[in-house]
Design goal:
By secondary structure, the protein is mostly helical. Helix content is 77%, strand content 0%. Helix 5 packs antiparallel against helix 6. The protein is elongated and about 70 Å long. It starts with a helix and ends with a helix. F-type ATPases have 2 components, CF(1) - the catalytic core - and CF(0) - the membrane proton channel. CF(1) has five subunits: alpha(3), beta(3), gamma(1), delta(1), epsilon(1). CF(0) has three main subunits: a, b and c.
Length: 145
Amino acid sequence: ILFNNFMGLFPYIFTSTSHLTLTLSLALPLWLSFMIYGWINHTQHMFAHLVPQGTPAVLMPFMVCIETISNVIRPGTLAVRLTANMIAGHLLLTLLGNTGPSMSYMLVTFLLIAQIALLVLESAVAMIQSYVFAVLSTLYSSEVN
């Protein structure tokens, strides 16, 4: 993920992690394997995760629904988070890059400084997003054990 994110910062190279199909094809099998493993090997533990401790008996059916929905949307949120964050910075850099030819010299200088600052920010975002994807995947796997 980190390599793909960084490669997208170079001119004329496509950022594959900015497409939902790639990020979802990374997140969905990972999550599905964790769920299948957990439900087969730790069924009692997986059922216990559906109702937090101290939940009143009246709220238990609702909590099961809420926790199930929360668990099912995890791969989608993991994929959309990576995709949206990669698209946002690249879109901003592209929009700023396309306005340069129609500006005066002083504004072009300011625009160049702004693009360099955004490129540094995008490099940080590329690292942070790959880190977040890895940490959340690890967190999801630790809930199974």
